[in-house]
Amino acid sequence: MFAQTIRGKVSDPDAVRAAVDRWTRDLGPTAKGWFGTTGGVTDDGDLFVLIRFESEGSARFNSARPEQDQWWSEFSKLLEGEPTFKDSNNVLIEPVGDLDSAGFVQVICGQSSDLERSRKLMTDSQSARSAARPEILGSVSVGHEDGKFTSVLYFSSEEEARAGERKELPPEAREAIEEMRSLGVTPPEYLDLKTPWLDSPK
């Protein structure tokens, strides 16, 4: 699987969402290998978009379409300054429920001294974490260069996510999270998407 993340600043989230809706309606049905899009804008105007494709080739094919170029030309006018793109073939999806039904999405951007170890810890402790935090519908983890990563967590609602944060986790899950934190190179950045945009092929 291939993923692309886009970050930028916006002042009109509704206009950005409308533009994303147009892509989903007009370009999505003919987008080769498109698996889904997760996006949203934080309270501070930070735009985040995660687009998943079957392969890098599929993504490149779609980027080269004239209609995609036209759409991006219009969409980019809604951004303040230049956006940041990150591409990756290092994608791990851990679905528990229906990701597209999430009412709240939290994005974690960080760097690990051992990304593979961090991912193994997540995978090995998934059942324990799922039992303790049923509001978590799943996650998508994207690995970048130098151990940098973007993790997208899907929750049933923000209220349930905040309540879950206050719960005491079982030892297995707690130990895994503590070890993952010890592998962190820098403090992670959190982006809360309180009104997430969740689109996928119908």
Q: What's the SSE pattern?
A: EHEEHHEEEHHEEHHEE
**What's the CATH C level of the largest domain?**
Alpha Beta
Overall pLDDT metric: 94
Q: N- to C-terminal separation? A: 19 Å
Radius of gyration: 17 Å
The total number of structural domains is: 2
Estimate percent helicity.
25-40%
Strand content of the residues, in percent? 35-45%
Number of strands: 10
| Structural class category | alpha+beta
Question: Strand order of the main beta sheet, please?
Answer: 4-1-3-2-10
Tally of individual helices: 7
Largest sheet: 5 strands, antiparallel
Could you list the spans in which at least 5 consecutive residues all have pLDDT below 50? none
The CATH topology of the largest domain is Alpha-Beta Plaits
CATH architecture of the largest domain: 2-Layer Sandwich
Overall outline:
globular
